[in-house]
TrEMBL record, chain A:
Keywords: Metal-binding, Pyrimidine biosynthesis, Zinc
Upper classification of the organism: Archaea, Thermoproteota, Thermoprotei, Desulfurococcales, Pyrodictiaceae
Ligand binding (Zn(2+)): 110, 115, 140, 143
Family annotation (HAMAP family): Asp_carb_tr_reg
Record's protein name: Aspartate carbamoyltransferase regulatory chain
Naturally occurring in which organism (per UniProt): Pyrodictium abyssi
Record domain Aspartate carbamoyltransferase regulatory subunit C-terminal: where: 104-152
Subunit structure: Contains catalytic and regulatory chains.
Residues passing through the membrane, by range: none
Cofactor binding mode and count: Binds 1 zinc ion per subunit.
From TrEMBL, chain B:
The species this protein was found in: Pyrodictium abyssi
Pathway listed: Pyrimidine metabolism; UMP biosynthesis via de novo pathway; (S)-dihydroorotate from bicarbonate: step 2/3
Name the record gives this protein: Aspartate carbamoyltransferase
Physiological role: Catalyzes the condensation of carbamoyl phosphate and aspartate to form carbamoyl aspartate and inorganic phosphate, the committed step in the de novo pyrimidine nucleotide biosynthesis pathway.
Presence of the UniProt keyword Transferase in the record: yes
Residues given in the record as carbamoyl phosphate binding sites: 60-61, 110, 138, 141, 273-274
Annotated catalysed reactions: carbamoyl phosphate + L-aspartate = N-carbamoyl-L-aspartate + phosphate + H(+)
Record family assignment: Belongs to the aspartate/ornithine carbamoyltransferase superfamily. ATCase family.
Keywords: Pyrimidine biosynthesis, Transferase
Class of the enzyme per the UniProt entry, highest EC level: transferase
Quaternary structure note: Heterooligomer of catalytic and regulatory chains.
Binding site for L-aspartate: 89, 171, 233
Record EC number: 2.1.3.2
Length: 164, 314
């Protein structure tokens, strides 16, 4: 983060800074993490700031929460360029890149209306295997339907609409 | 002969099997067929129970499984049609499967939702055989299709195949196409109206397997090259939008005249049946028709599968 970006939002004492999110996707990242703002966490979202690596980028700072590896890796679905900074006592103590897990479970729904995962009242979670990372292609383990990044983003947006 | 890699296996997709598995299955099926023809079939599955869980209406697949089980001395339990089950009372699929898992030694399932057989296999401890899940898989149909090709031609490799009809919603067509990726066809033509092209995941598998295939719209353009023509019905019940069905219904029809004019003498026509009007009745008595042989082969192939999966000494 450059000093000028740092000025936009103050440094956090303890928590997680998700940097290098593709511009415009910070809110989708929050949805993937299940952060709605109602948890009482202090969250800062910075959008469309200059980036040497990406041209423009978003940044999300979550105070008082450390992300698990599973959560970090889910972010790779829509922000493969993201970096995760774990902060303690105002210092970055760990820096890591996101990495897609081989199986994605329970984040996105299958787009096929006659997939068994869409049948009401069945105790099962949608599961996808990663076919390709860039461009993203996920294949439903149950019905074989292939979905892409646009489908994932669309669903995250719809989930956000419903919450509102 | 004990067959360690078969006992207790699920059969969800034709791609759960290797070419070697299928060759072994076909050897056993050929022996079953011989025994059926001699009228002497050992009761290899005496004392076993096979559950036939047909949540979706079916006649021939269900009767063929039932015949296969009974020929080998097994008992069958089950139902046909969702209204006949506790699902109509609001029970979920998982609970119905758990119940059958407690009663039977194997579960044969047909369901209109894609992925239902895999889900059932995750829930059940006993082996689950997919008898058709929505538009996705029909592995035992693909097994008997390949078996029939092998019986007719002595080989599955090196032939030119045409798969005609509904390649998008038809599970028999999809499973047959996937099955061919375990072999080395010389060429595969996917013949359908543009609306009914094979699904992306099926095409992805063809690409991955390096199969030489081409998507075409008109049978006439490729008929003369084909050794096997696999015809499927356009299934009204699979169309989410009836207007889409109206656009493609009756868009092709295989007649004796067409075959005599344009096909090689050795061409054989397959069809998973039932047919409506996509193959004219006058093809039935011609040298080209192989679909009744194909339908009959369902019993020995399913006998072979049941006995292998249930660990019978074949």
């Amino acid at each position: 983060m450059t000093p000028s970006e740092g000025l936009l939002v103050r440094r956090i004492r303890e928590g997680t800074v998700i940097d290098h999110i593709p511009a415009g996707r910070a809110l989708a990242v929050l949805r993937i993490l299940g952060i709605t703002g109602r948890e009482g966490l202090r969250v800062a979202v910075v959008m469309n700031v200059e980036s040497r690596r990406l041209g423009r980028k978003d940044i999300v700072k979550v105070e008082g929460r450390h992300l698990s590896s599973e959560e970090v890796n889910r972010i790779a679905l829509i922000a493969p360029s993201a970096t995760i900074n774990i902060v303690k006592g105002y210092q970055v103590i760990e820096k890591k890149r996101v990495k897609l897990p081989s199986v994605i479970e329970g984040i996105v729904a299958c787009t096929n209306p006659t997939c068994i995962t869409r049948k009401p009242r069945e105790p099962l979670r949608p599961r996808f295997r990663i076919l390709a990372e860039r461009p993203l292609q996920l294949q439903c383990t149950y019905c074989g339907t292939i979905i892409d990044e646009e489908d994932v983003l669309e669903q995250l947006e719809e989930a956000g609409e419903e919450r509102r | 002969m004990p067959r360690g890699n078969w006992e207790g296996r699920d059969a969800i997709s034709i791609l759960d099997f290797t070419r070697d598995d299928l060759e072994e299955l076909f050897d056993v099926a050929a022996r079953m067929k011989e025994m059926l023809q001699r009228g002497r079939v050992p009761r290899l599955l005496e004392g076993r129970i096979v559950a036939l869980a047909f949540f979706e209406p079916s006649t021939r697949t269900r009767l063929s499984f039932e015949t296969a089980a009974k020929r080998l001395g097994a008992e069958t339990i089950g139902f046909a049609g969702e209204e006949a089950t506790s699902l109509a009372k609001g029970e979920n699929l998982a609970d119905t499967i758990r119940m059958l898992d407690g009663y039977a030694d194997a579960i044969v399932i047909r369901h209109r939702y894609e992925g239902s057989a895999l889900y059932a296999a995750e829930v059940a401890e006993k082996p689950v055989i997919n008898a058709g899940d929505g538009k996705q898989h029909h592995p035992t149909q693909a097994m008997l299709d390949l078996y029939t090709v092998k019986e007719l031609f002595g080989t599955i490799d090196g032939l030119v195949y045409g798969v005609l009809g509904d390649l998008r919603f038809g599970r028999a067509a999809s499973s047959f196409i996937l099955a061919l990726t375990l072999y080395q066809p010389r060429k595969l033509y996917l013949i359908s109206p543009p609306l009914l092209r094979a699904r992306p995941e099926v095409r992805a598998r063809l690409d991955e397997a390096g199969i030489d295939y081409e998507e075409v719209s008109k049978l006439d353009d490729v008929l003369g090259e084909l050794d096997v023509l696999y015809v499927t019905r356009i299934q009204r019940e699979r169309f989410p939008d009836p207007r889409e069905y109206e656009k493609v219904r009756g868009s092709y029809r295989v007649t004796r005249e067409l075959l005599e004019r344009g096909a090689k003498p050795e061409l054989r026509v397959l069809h998973p049946l039932p047919r409506v009007d996509e193959i004219a009745a006058n093809v039935d008595s011609s040298r080209y028709a192989a679909y009744f042989l194909q339908a009959r082969n369902g019993v020995p192939v399913r006998m072979a599968l049941l006995s292998l999966i249930l660990g019978a000494e074949v």
